[in-house]
Specification:
The relative contact order is 0.09. Helix 1 runs antiparallel to helix 3 and helix 6 packs parallel to helix 9. The chain is mainly α.
């Protein structure tokens, strides 16, 4: 791979041509994925509704039908477009990331490329882990919380049932997926900053109390206004911050070990030179 990205000076026009080519590949991959996903948009939306079905089962309401509504003629059509765009972005992301790497790689040294590539692989994996956590656990929990507010009706009570709009349900689950997906990038971001020398593990430790406060503030902003989703996002954020501290310490140990090995090799190379000087 190193032969494909040799460091060669290029004029600005060649950089712009290369950027255009990479953008065309990225946009083309997204467009093709969007067309395929739009064709299957209803099926994809039904997959996103599964957490709602699970929450109904958790709430013991298995007798009721799962119903979502739309109140504007064009609402479900635009919802399908959003589903297709969301799914296309997930499917096309490996190609988009590859094109970004191919554009950036010629400007990096070989050791920088070797350090950058693992993070490029880890980032989508962590995002998918966060999305899976939302899909299989937090969305059913949030919907179960909202379902618990229903009112069955009877003497002195009116019947109140949850009938989500398709657009609002999609907005809820997409917001949760993006929020958790971004939060799960915290170890990647902190590791990159440590490698670049902008922060250290000790500075992360010193700012831990501020990070905890910021985690709860961000959870309140990014998630719906219910305590389950807010606490559910804040706690993993704090855990990921601790993982970031651990990875930062590993990077610093590796850097110190590499520096020590380099010094040892330098000392070993200096010994023969001093011996030859003594003989002379």
């Amino acid at each position: 791979m190193s032969g494909d990205y040799e460091d060669k000076p290029q004029p600005l026009i060649e950089h712009l041509i290369e950027l255009r080519r990479r953008l065309m590949w990225a946009v083309g991959a997204f467009f093709v994925a969007f067309l395929v996903c739009f064709y299957f948009a209803k099926g994809l939306f039904n997959l996103l509704v599964l957490p709602f079905k699970w929450s109904v089962e958790w709430a013991g309401l298995t007798h009721r039908n799962i119903e979502l509504i739309y109140t504007a003629p064009q609402e479900f059509f635009f919802t399908q477009i959003k589903v297709a765009m969301f799914s296309a972005l997930v499917i096309a992301f490996p190609i988009i990331a590859q094109q970004i790497y191919k554009f950036v790689a010629p400007g990096l040294y070989k050791n920088e490329r070797a350090a950058f590539l693992p993070f490029l692989i880890a980032s989508p994996i962590l995002f998918l882990i966060g999305a899976a956590l939302v899909y299989f656990f937090f969305t059913p929990m949030v919907m179960w919380f909202f379902l618990s507010m229903e009112q069955g009706g009877g003497e002195g009570q009116v019947s109140i049932q949850l009938l989500p709009k398709v657009s609002e349900y999609l907005s809820l689950i997409m917001t949760l997926i993006f929020a958790f997906g971004l939060v799960f990038q915290l170890p990647v971001v902190s590791s990159l900053l440590v490698r670049a020398g902008f922060i250290t593990s000790q500075s992360l430790v010193d700012k831990r109390k501020y990070a905890i406060v910021i985690a709860f503030i961000a959870a309140a902003v990014l998630t719906p206004p219910d305590p389950i989703s807010q606490i559910g996002l804040a706690l993993p954020t704090i855990l990921l911050y601790e993982i970031g501290i651990y990875t930062a310490r590993l990077i610093e140990r590796q850097r110190a070990s590499a520096a020590q090995d380099s010094d040892s090799e330098k000392d070993a190379a200096d010994v023969p030179a001093s011996q030859e000087a003594d003989k002379a």
